[in-house]
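Fold this complex.
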Amino acid sequence: MRTGERPSGRSVATAARGGGRSARVVAQVLRATAEQLGRVGYVALRVEDVAQNAGVNKTTIYRRWPTKADLVSATLRREGEACEGAPDTGSVREDLLIMLRRLVDHGRSPMVRVMMPEMTHPEVRAIANGLKHNFESEWVSVVARGVGRGELPAGTSPLLVTEIVTSAVIRRLIRGEEMPDEAFCESVVDLVLAGSVALAARRPRAKTG
Amino acid sequence: MRTGERPSGRSVATAARGGGRSARVVAQVLRATAEQLGRVGYVALRVEDVAQNAGVNKTTIYRRWPTKADLVSATLRREGEACEGAPDTGSVREDLLIMLRRLVDHGRSPMVRVMMPEMTHPEVRAIANGLKHNFESEWVSVVARGVGRGELPAGTSPLLVTEIVTSAVIRRLIRGEEMPDEAFCESVVDLVLAGSVALAARRPRAKTG
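Structure:
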């Protein structure tokens, strides 16, 4: 039973939206996992401890998330929801700033700070790579909308803009350094936007006859 | 006793410049350490293996580098010499590109690729932090010279330019991703330089009366 569900046997996602007992259990377990990750990280995380803190049976967890990697992946997805949903304010500068601030906030959470140095662990890296595509595609869509509105020139590479705007924060994050302040975020976004516009002005324009 | 040296009491540095036996031993040991780092990384590195590969006694190594961290730090400094010495071509774009290409080349070496994921190890991180200042100061000096020549506007922050230009490469490096190609390096440098100029044009100019 999957999407387009029938009356009985609701999927986890439906239950989560409905807020039933199942959704409560999911929320409790993922919250407990996030807390535990913030305390001990991925490598030392024990499903037993999560079960105890969430007040559920270990088997309840294993039934839904057969491996520790599954459980942590679901937790990061849930916690990452605060970072998700590309904004659409009508201004590419505003949208990029909103996303960069979210990334900075996310990088200040205990869970992320404890887990980041564990990026070298193959399972952690696999989990992170699984989330990376979603993350990137939202940034790319924001930049692409800016191009569509004519705020950015037609030749702009959304992926390049994304990489340059996010890398300074992600580099600090991975290295466990302090997250940048608002002024830094604005400087980076403004510099990249201004640079994109200025570079395009130098290129021979394709549309001019 | 080789070129231009005094009969007795030469320092290691003098010997290194002069190319005497002491310098040869240093070179052999550091080379063997670099090779071993590229094979097994920092954590698994054993001074015994380095000694054997370099054809010297373990005590010869310990006399000069009392700890594994000392030995590896010296090796990274030596290997990093290829990345050192800020260029001064008279063009900030050329200088930045030379340094970015060096960083990319450096990031392709087996030693760096094996060690980067170990950045989370406290000793590796301490070694890297010890080298970071040198690295940053050369980038900053190149950008500052560009400002001095008027290629970049007076309000430019050399540290910000450094961070934005280097972060995309360093982020890939830390995450063990592929190093970018020449086109990517040029795009980043051009975008940051064009952005710096364009942003300054928007600021009220301090020197105008």
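DSSP finds ten helices and no strands in chain B.
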